[in-house]
Design goal:
Elements lengths: L5 E10 L5 H17 L3 E9 L2 E8 L2 H8 L4 H11 E10 L5 H11 L1 E2 L2
Antiparallel strand pairs: 1-3, 1-4, 2-3, 4-5
Helix pairs in contact: 1-3
Length: about 120
């Protein structure tokens, strides 16, 4: 039997230039720490698949996710990532959390350009 609805957010980013690696990881690590302690966050994981740095976060609701994304340090990451990375995001309600294979497939099929 499926569980209660959750909000799943998938991001996949490629670093644009080798010299952006340090800044990317600094911002990504700070954002991951923030997500893992954010109110309403149920899960936050990262994995590199085919050169793409993916994150999956699972939230009690879309509202909980939105309360997180525009607060520091994630806000600084949003502002910098357009300059240092390219990629897509996809968010959706679900009753189960996709595995990494499904995350990557959904990212390719339904992801929107990262803004």
């Amino acid at each position: 039997m499926p569980g209660p609805k959750v909000y799943v957010s998938i991001t996949g980013l490629r670093i644009k230039k080798p010299w952006h690696v340090f800044e990317f990881y600094r911002l990504a690590a700070a954002s991951l720490r923030q997500a893992r302690t954010a109110k309403g966050n149920l899960r936050s994981d990262v994995k590199k698949i085919g050169g793409v740095h993916h994150t999956i976060t699972v939230w009690e609701s879309e509202q909980a996710m939105r309360a997180f994304i525009y607060v520091e340090p994630h806000l600084s990451a949003i502002r910098a990532f357009r300059r240092i990375a390219s990629g897509k995001t996809f968010g959706f309600e679900a009753r189960s959390v996709p595995d990494w294979e499904e995350v990557h497939r959904l990212w390719h099929a339904r992801g929107q350009d990262y803004v």
